[in-house]
Amino acid sequence: MSGAPEDPRSVDTRAARVPAQRTSRTGAPGPRRIPAPRAPERTLLGYRLPALTSMVLIALFCLLGLGTLTFQLAGTVRVFFAEAALGLVFGAATLLFGFWLFRRIRPVRAPDLPASLVAVLWGMTAATGGALLANSALSGVWSKTMGLAFTSAWGAALTAPLNEELFKLVGIVLVAVAFPRALRGPVDGFVLGALVGLGFEVTENLIYGLNTVAMAGGVNGAEAVVQTTVLRVVLTGFGSHWAMSAVAGAGVGLLAAAGWLPGRRRAVGALLLVLTAVGMHWLFDSPLLDGFAGIVFKVLLNFAIALAVYFAFRHAHRRRVRRALAREGEEVGLRRSSAVALARRRARRRALREVPEAERAEAGRVQELMVEEAEDRAFANRV
Amino acid sequence: MVQPSYTAPDRSRNQWLPLGVAAAVAVLLVAAWSLLNALLPGTERIRAGDEITIGEGGGYRASLSLPQEGWSLDVGASRAGQSYRFHRGPVDLTVTAVTPVGDPPPDAERLWEGMGDIARAGDPTARLGDPEVITTEQGVEGLTGVLRSRTEEGAAVLYPSPDGGFAVEMTLGGRDATTADLEAVADVARTVVFTGEGER
């Protein structure tokens, strides 16, 4: 199929320039819009009710988590207010950068905004609040059964990977049920998992900062917060919570893509990804390979694992969307290479720049629709 | 063009499965560990004279020995090398090692103020009185004063390590502890010993 040469939005695909969707087709009556597949939200019992229930549960757990955090931290924040404010400023900066970055790494287009916000919120409140309670109780169990010395060395490694990874995982699953169109495959799971981990990390950094103030005797608190932030964002931030829950989230994506009833191979794959996330956390918290070089090694290892998982699934995701775009292109009379190139953000922007300004908004809307439909088509039978 | 349906009934019902499992896991994590922790016995008897390492930093290690019988360690509320909580009848003893940041390290008076702030963070009504000098049996100088809150009155003690690398902070009190109870164990505050690397 070839595009009309006179069409200003038809471009040379060797230069990777992509037109917006044409409004007319040579020798054809006009673009044939494909009716969007029936959205999963539209069936009451199948999706709407579980989604609504999931949202209620998310709200409930987030409120409980926030209440727990408030109860635990209110006294410290009241007395060390300047230190807490400093920690919040660092946290806000981390959150904004991470939110932009993790939404940007999703191939084709950014993930659903409400789902992204809920994922972060879960990490910041429900997961941290719940983990705070569960960690405290399980640490007590280890101290009472294994002794203080053992718990001092191994308590974190035997507590946090289990409680924290599971609490973050619960959030990813609930977001997947609440926003079924936002999490339809491993890449979506990876991105939303990273966002849950980001939220968790931001709140945990604040808690650690305030704990450090107390462990420093309540003196030079700002310095303690800065030191903690530098350590936890600059040094270990590359391979901490976001990386672990992104890997686990990819596993959730595998299950969601199979309608939560996976075959054996997919189930094993998902389980391995979750166990990998727990293992990453375990090694990170364990006293093995302690010291600066050891910590750097652990961080780089976690980062490398997350990248490997990301690129493996990103490739498959883009391939499916490109294939769907090609079919979309065929149906609306768009050159295959031009349609396929719509899978890239930059190519879409470049194409829009070539559209007269008066038509740009509409062309952009058509582009978005086409990409959305292509993703629907690519993952339709997986929902 | 035929689109695959999103709404195959056999699959749509599956949304309830992950929802239920996720909610159950979240509830179980908190409930199961809390229950298990509550069921396990949480105290460990400490014999008079047993040496307990409180913390270390710089070139020193701090230890404590409780002179009386009858003390027990609240294992669930303690962390090795950081903080310990002991009980003896109605008396509570909390011993914490703090490691100040900054160079030069803060002096004892600033650490005393910081200790007061930490006490207020835990209980808004807690106030530390003016400090007086106290000396351990080993001869190390520190500060002591009254720790008062709406519910109890006790004593606070602070010993910076000889090189200022860390400090030992103690509070002695108890909601139901009488003055006689506290006086009976007051010598605990002087049993802190700092050991240099070369002396071990």
UniProtKB/TrEMBL annotation, chain A:
It holds the Pfam family PrsW-protease. Keywords: Membrane, Transmembrane, Transmembrane helix. It comes from the Bacteria. Residues 1-37 are annotated as: Disordered. The chain crosses the membrane at residues 51-74, 80-102, 114-134, 242-261, 268-285, 291-313. InterPro entries: PrsW. The keyword Plastid does not apply. Residues 1-15 have a biased composition (Basic and acidic residues). One of its GO terms (molecular function) is peptidase activity. PANTHER family: PROTEASE PRSW (PTHR36844). This is Membrane proteinase PrsW, cleaves anti-sigma factor RsiW, M82 family. It comes from Nocardiopsis flavescens.
Automatic annotation (TrEMBL), chain B:
The keyword Membrane applies. The chain crosses the membrane at residues 16-40. Keywords: Membrane, Transmembrane, Transmembrane helix. The keyword Membrane applies. This is Uncharacterized protein. It comes from Nocardiopsis flavescens.
